[in-house]
Amino acid sequence: MVRSVAERAFLPTRNLLEEIGDMMILTGRTVVSALRPPYPYGGEFVSQFLFALRLCWFPLLISTVCFCYAAPGLQAANFLQIFGALDRLGGFFVLAAVREIAPIVDAIVLAGVAGTAITADLGARKIREELDALQVLGVDPVKNLVVPRFLALMLVTGLFDIYAILFGMFGGILAELVKGAPLGPFWATFFANASTVDLWGSVLKTTLYGAIIAIVCCYKGMTASGGAEGVGRAVNQAVVIAFIGVFSFDYVFTQTLLATHPNILVIK
Question: Where are the domains of the chain?
Fold first, then answer.
């Protein structure tokens, strides 16, 4: 009786660890399949890239401008204005927008829009037994379905980070203009604190976010079961797990970046 109670208590933890292990295996298979010839997924890669680009550019624009205008823009501007240091808002935007908010908003939009579409697409194919049919025909689903989505999401997430940074800065400019402050000091403190490490670190981080989102969404789609209800459940689980994976990786990446580049800890 005690054993059965313990098994039921630890069942969610065991299932979680099994899923993490399966996702790591899928990651390894995806990377190997992407590097090993032949490369039959060119057309699918372009199609998935354009699909994510078309779906995500406008939600990302609105989310980044509003988020950066409201949170680090108005809130930080109100705080800095108390001390007569509104010109420091530009330096704060290096910490807030470039390093964290733009990448996180990018990942949230991509996971919520493109990631759910990928999970639903692969889940529907799994329910209709199309994936099993491909294997019977000798077609590798990982190389032909997972790899193009993996590469497309990595590329589009990295590119969208630049897009998110630009519109995040626009939110900061709006906050400065609303406060009636000149933009010269804003740009001066921004460029005094910004560095190439901040830029390439942000782009690299979001590119790896794309990889995490792609693996999680493809895995949940390819293991969906239980009909249409099961596909919906897989989509919900994929979004939650992708968010957890992104936020956890963000902590590890940021700590590593700050430890290896202590000069960016100094605020000028």
Answer: 46-265
